[in-house]
């Protein structure tokens, strides 16, 4: 592997953030890892020594921005900052079997979890199973198979920033297109990252 090609942006507190993630990754199983990461994420968001790169505060007009800040050559995890302009959000989607810890860095996000009720080929029946209004300093985790959710910046005038730590680079996922009643059609989606200047 060419480790020099892995994303690794410089920003204040970068080493502290990576050290905290590396420590959490050493936990025994994915439940312990994600619990440790949630605690670390909440502390890092409040830590004035850690400041995300300026680029993550620049929204993109036609989609929420995904900027990969770091990828661990040793552990394989990926750190991605997402920038949500007012009203931007996701459809129901999964994480293709990857656990993830997501924290709100700035602004506020609406997160809705969905329960899979049944499946018929590529058709999935979902029901909303709870939601939360997440502000700065809050963090949550997704552990498959409980990974179906939406994220939306419901604000009409304020951007939101979230930081996501994935078990491995998340380069694709399934998105779910509404059909009728509670039924959705699964669509394979390739996820792109937006340029994050070094």
TrEMBL record:
Organism name: Luteimonas notoginsengisoli
The protein's name: Cysteine dioxygenase
GO molecular function, one term: dioxygenase activity
Keywords attached to this entry: Dioxygenase, Iron, Metal-binding, Oxidoreductase
InterPro entries named in the record: CDO_1, RmlC-like_jellyroll, RmlC_Cupin_sf
Protein family (similarity comment): Belongs to the cysteine dioxygenase family.
